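Notebook entry, structure prediction.
Reason for the run: the old model in the group folder had no record of what sequence produced it. Starting over properly, with the input documented here first.
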Amino acid sequence: MKLVVIGHDYQDDRYIPNLEALAARPNVDVTLICPERFKGRHCHWNQETKVARLPIDAWFARRQGTYVYDPRALGKALDRLQPDIILHVQEVYALGAAQIAAAAARRSIPLVMLVWENVPRALSRPRRMLARFVLRSCSALIAGSTGCQEIHRNWGFTGPIEVVPLLGVNVGAGPGRGRQAIDGFSVCYVGRLVPQKGVDCLLRAVAGLRKQKIPVECSIAGEGPEFDNLTALARELEIADHVRFCGQLSRASVRTLLRQTDVEILPSRRTSFWSEQFGRVLTEAMAEATVTVGSRTGAIPEVIGDDELLFAEDDWRGIAAILERLHNDPQWLAGCRRKLWTRAKENYTYDRLAARAIQFLREVEARPLGSH
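New structure, fully documented this time:
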């Protein structure tokens, strides 16, 4: 199968292993088409890969919802590659999605969209028109979550949808016994410092635990507009000495942090325009046998897969209760570590996700074009 993957995300070489896993499946040839320049940044990979890459000019490439490829360059690329199927990574209401849908239809190439939108947002009339055209034109969807699948069904798509979050992880060695932290009880958050991530709830939970004489230490890795507010809140709650703001960490440093931490927490809260689409740091933590705790919002519950490790949005007391139990019950903590590590190994490795995606793409390829 000659597979062409199209998308701007893969300019970030953190995502190269996902492409390599697709290309490693038997009898699969993968070529990536991506913008030559996106948001002012040239397409450049810092690591070697066997995946073929074809950057082409993109117009209006400052926003992901409005950019399109140079039509002549895109057409020449598709005519030269002659793919059996196209996997396009973009939301269906984007201008570029309509361009790719038209180009695929013109050449009778099956198109599968990889989508993540999981909020029933009110689209403008032009966006609704784009979405309808793309959903009528594509052969199938790969959805990042069941919530995403439901949204696209509600938008009228009647064709095949497979839920495959194509964001794999490397699973580390099996969990050892007891805690990961050398001293005390450690928790962490990794991600953007923005209001919708709910880091303020985590700080309030840490403060509540410290008042109960539970020696919890917290690390917060990431950058964002909430940094000043969060550091001020830590001082106000009198836990500044027990909260370490690490700033933006490299992927290797994040992995080291997770290995040394007992619990990783994702306290996201939904807004009218956003809900957690996956939470990749959850699977990264699970792969290191770190216990993951998250709010009941977006895709978090289906990623973690254990209701006892979930709390309601904005419920810092719920966070504190789960952390208190993990601290006081070493057997439960060890059991959670084993269960989550096994879940990552069985569901979220690059190879497992690629195998599921390729099997689905082969099924789509075998169907008559326009059969839904």
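Summary: The domain at 185-347 is CATH 3.40.50.2000 (Rossmann fold).
The old model has been moved to the deprecated folder.
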